[in-house]
Amino acid sequence: MQVVRLLEADGVDVVRDGRYLLRGITFSVEAGQHWAVLGANGAGKSTLLGLLGAVNHPTRGTVKVLGRQLGRVDIRDLRAHLGHVDPRHPLRSPLSARQVVLTGATGTIEPDPFRKPSAEQLAHAEELIDTLGVAHRAEAAWPTLSQGERGRVLIARALMPLPRLLLLDEPATGLDLTAREQLLGALDDLRGRYPELASVLVTHHLEELPASTTHALLLRDGEAVACGTADEVLRSGPVSDAFRHPILITREDGRWSARTRR
């Protein structure tokens, strides 16, 4: 079986004002894999996601996104094939949830008045809205949606252009327990429905990882502490090392939890 690598980072450094934000990062993401990137605040998670999302360039090393190397390709072309979920979506007008999802087809914040959605796009939007469990709120205005509903709407929006890779930047930020569990359940369902889709989810809470997580990268001060399958990496030793704190990791029903090891 041919291996399809959607992301490749090789010896990546990111230096700003003489300070290393990332140093020597090497890993790859294949089709169907679901990666978690974890670390304390300031570990370099957001910087790495910016590289993977073709927003920034490395200072040294190479990053290939969908087989094309950053610095040798128009990054606007790459972004059209990536689904980026940012809970800080800068929408200011009271669009309905359905309208927000449809803006994913044009890659704009507001609807493009010169590009009307096709019948196929409308049908795809309805399928995604249903898959993410927000069909009952499709007509609700964005300001009236709960934080959890907004998160699921933004995931549906990111999937509108049929991306091969989904990037999730702390999608459970600010969610209460129920909303978090609904979001993670929706991600598990989504991954089952689209088996070739790959994803990278950034967080610093293991409780925010879906059970369908397959791989993990632990960062500390911009360097990789551990990288590999979730079973290998998300253990007490590597996580304690990454967070510089004695942590006990347990897993039950496919989900991880963390607490101080006494």
From TrEMBL:
It comes from Kitasatospora terrestris. This is ATP-binding cassette domain-containing protein. GO terms for molecular function: ATP binding. Residues 7-246 form the ABC transporter domain. Keywords: ATP-binding, Nucleotide-binding, Translocase, Transport. PROSITE patterns: ABC_TRANSPORTER_2. It holds the Pfam family ABC_tran. It comes from the Bacteria.
